[in-house]
């Protein structure tokens, strides 16, 4: 099994605005049913929706010290709305789950594999410390 992050985002302003007009109870019902499918399949590790981007903060590392600004970065296009973290055998399995997310036109889901700690140099002191922390917290 491998971990894949499914990152949901609006890819145009209109889609983002329409999402904000969606009945919240209906959205919870729809997403809840999909989440149940993930749980029942035993592939869901984590899922979170993100709050309004206008309440966010951006840290830009282009200068020293980094510049901190309020609100969304640049344009409101392609703002992340939430994510799923799944444990599935292949990227194609992650793609198949992503195709079932109750979404709408104007939205996309990006799929990225999450490397395991075993893929990093095991003799690195920081990797050793992280491995110990993960073992102590039941993550390994």
Structure in words:
The chain has one domain (2-115): Dimeric alpha+beta barrel (Alpha-Beta Plaits, 2-Layer Sandwich). The radius of gyration is 18 Å and the shape is globular. A four-stranded antiparallel β-sheet has the order 2-5-1-6. A two-stranded antiparallel ribbon has the order 3-4. The two termini are 14 Å apart. It is 34% helix and 29% strand. It has helices spanning 13-20, 24-41, 91-100, 125-136, and strands at residues 2-10, 44-49, 57-60, 67-70, 80-88, 107-114. The chain is built from four helices and six strands. The relative contact order is 0.25. The protein has 140 residues and is an alpha+beta fold. The mean pLDDT is 88.
Strands side by side in the biggest sheet: 2-5-1-6
Q: Would you tell me which CATH topology applies? A: Alpha-Beta Plaits
**What is the chain-wise order of helices and strands?**
EHHEEEEHEH
Question: What would you call the structural class?
Answer: alpha+beta
CATH H level: which superfamily? Dimeric alpha+beta barrel
Average pLDDT confidence is 88
Radius of gyration using CA atoms only: 18 Å
The top-level CATH class is Alpha Beta
Number of structural domains: 1
Strand content: 25-35%
What form results from the Cα inertia axes? globular
Low-confidence stretches: none
Report the sheet with the most strands, covering strand number, pairing sense and barrel closure.
4 strands, antiparallel
Number of extended strands: 6
Query: Number of helical segments?
Result: 4
The N- to C-terminal Cα distance equals: 14 Å
Q: Which CATH architecture? A: 2-Layer Sandwich
Helix content: 25-40%
InterPro entries: Dimeric_a/b-barrel (IPR011008), YCII (IPR005545)
Protein name: Transcription initiation protein
Family: Belongs to the YciI family.
Organism: Microlunatus elymi
């Amino acid at each position: 099994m491998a971990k894949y992050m499914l990152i949901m985002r609006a890819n145009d302003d209109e889609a983002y605005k329409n999402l904000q007009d969606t009945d919240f109870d209906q959205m919870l019902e729809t997403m809840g049913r999909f989440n149940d499918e993930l749980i029942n399949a035993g592939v869901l590790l984590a899922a979170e929706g993100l709050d309004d981007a206008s309440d966010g903060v951006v840290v830009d590392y282009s200068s020293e010290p980094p510049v901190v600004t309020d609100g969304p970065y640049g344009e409101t296009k392609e703002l992340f709305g939430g994510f799923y973290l799944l444990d599935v055998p292949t990227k194609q399995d992650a793609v198949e789950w992503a195709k079932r997310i109750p979404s709408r036109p104007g939205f996309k889901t990006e799929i990225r594999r999450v490397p395991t700690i075993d893929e990093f140099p095991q003799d690195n002191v920081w990797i050793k410390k992280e491995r110990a922390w993960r073992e102590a917290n039941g993550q390994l």
